[in-house]
Amino acid sequence: MTVVQxxxxxxxxxxxxxxxxxxxxxxxxxPQNETVIQTPDPDxxxxxxxxxxxxxxxxGGILAIPFIFNYLLTLSLYHWANMRRKPGQTPPExxxxxxxxxxxxxxxDSASFVAKATTYAGKLTCVRISLLINGIYLVSExxxxxxxxxxxxxxxPIYVYTVGLRYIFGMHEKGIEAYTDxxxxxxxxxxxxxxxxxxxxxxxxxxxxxxxxxxxxxxxRTFERFQAILxxxxxxxxxxxxxxxxxxxxxxxxxxxxxxxxxxxFGPSLLAINPNFTSDLWEFDEQVVNLAKRLPRFLIPNAxxxxxxxxxxxxxxxxxxRQHFRDSNTDQDTQWDPYWGSxxxxxxxxxxxxxxxxxxxxxxxxxxxxxxxxxxxVVPSTMLTAFHIFSDPALxxxxxxxxxxxxxxxxxxxxxxxxxxxxxxxxxxxxYAETLRLxxxxxxxxxxxxxxxxxxxxxxxxxxxxxxxxxxxxxxTSLWNEQDGAHPVTSFWADRFILDPxxxxxxxxxxxxxxxxEIRSKLxxxxxxxxxxxxxxxxxxxxxxxxACPGRLLAKRIILYTCALLVSEFEVEVKxxxxxxxxSGFGLGTQKPKTKIGFRIRRRRGD
Length: 607
Fold this sequence. Notes:
Elements: H1 3-11, H2 14-22, H3 46-83, H4 103-108, H5 110-117, E1 119-120, E2 123-124, E3 127-130, E4 135-138, H6 142-150, H7 158-168, H8 173-181, H9 202-214, H10 216-235, E5 244-246, H11 249-266, H12 268-272, H13 277-292, H14 301-324, H15 343-353, H16 360-375, H17 378-391, H18 393-402, E6 407-410, E7 414-417, H19 419-422, H20 426-439, E8 440-447, E9 453-455, E10 458-460, E11 465-469, H21 470-474, E12 498-499, H22 514-521, E13 529-530, H23 552-569, E14 570-574, E15 581-582, E16 588-590, E17 592-593, E18 599-603
Parallel strand pairs: 4-11
Antiparallel strand pairs: 1-2, 3-4, 5-18, 6-7, 8-11, 8-16, 9-10, 12-13, 14-18, 15-17
Helix pairs in contact: 1-3, 7-8, 9-15, 10-11, 10-23, 11-17, 13-14, 14-16, 17-18, 17-20, 17-23
Keywords: Heme, Iron, Membrane, Metal-binding, Transmembrane, Transmembrane helix
Transmembrane segments: 57-78
């Protein structure tokens, strides 16, 4: 169907529609000099009421004509663009009603809507969806996603920073201006078309600070501290040789792993002077979905209240740390101190407060965002990885055997792990990667401020928001290996990322794809091994490219270490293995259990 044919088809209904519109008014006499609209007669017959209702419906139909015509036109153009695709064209508009667009479907039925909108004729495609305020380009084809990660002009997450800080983390408008004004990019060298002052390059300064604080030497020192704190936290649980019943597996991980992440990154003072901070953080996490929908305060008062409490507690932490910190408090090797925690936090204070419009209140919103993303994704990811290991006795045995040469236990130091070895364990890596593939439901947002960009066969306009859904990428049945339906993408398969050169049906990619064939042809080993090759546009729990999550290396170590510690030191029996996941926060990170998961735990006895 061509565009012209589509329009002609929609106009062919006009004669019958016109007859239906005018028919109720035919043969009606309206006397001169009389009021047409009169007070209804209480004795009006049912026939009179029927005529009035009929006229109202027809009037409504007349008003709807422009909307229907617009929808039919958009529908025709949408099909035309997909059936006559040419390299370099702009993704077509997804059909929706004018003005409101796809707003309600996008916000309240996100998973099914995004999956539907990004599919055409059974294949993933790219599309523009119109929302109440603006539009978003949804990029879903693996090649297009991989091209996004490679393009330096699509490396800036500044748009999502702005939206998140304004609506979720409560930054005031004066502070937001620094983010909306910065079009210089995240690289050390600013974009040549940008005129932002060096001290106001908040995109680059933020990214650079996070990279230095969450990678390399600083990351390793933070991780060492995490290990010590996690073991201390577990010791306080008073778990012995006898079974202890616990009502909620997720709460167990929040209290032990979550607090260890907080303290290792931000120091003990934050929690010491704000004893309710952790509980408030998880209450806030439950409300983030409502804040993200931009609902007014009178509809979600609890969300605004808990956010205000957290922002106040963070500013209390600033004041306390400034009063008590001395250079002598700092560990010269780790650059960690008990007041600010990681040196990254001290440097962020100095850096952010030197930017125009930033004050303690604005920086507190920024730090709330950092704290929330640091804790509320890695905790459920760790819990779900451990859950799948302990729920499958055969898998648990395989994991214990595979990591036995990487872990040890001594009476003096307790449990320890060689992370260099642990990070190379194929099965543990596969379980980790599969957990993130199955449960991470994030939107990765990019925007090219100065020029149009080509990704795959599509062109993305300048200064327009482009978004990738990890859920759509992770559920792509044409790319992922399901072994002829034995392991659907919607289910957990511990060995999905294990590639066996002797087994053509193994590996993460669909064996029938050319990419899988090419990868196999270049294998240099005959051993089974973990493989994520060819998945740059398919496995994206941390995003990709220059602005991929800077905390991903720390997060992976936290997840693998915690699981290694638990399987080596404890027995865990999960009672509720069939539970529902909560997708209400679709697009905001890792799924969490909808209900409590009962379990029991004890120390391992000598084998």
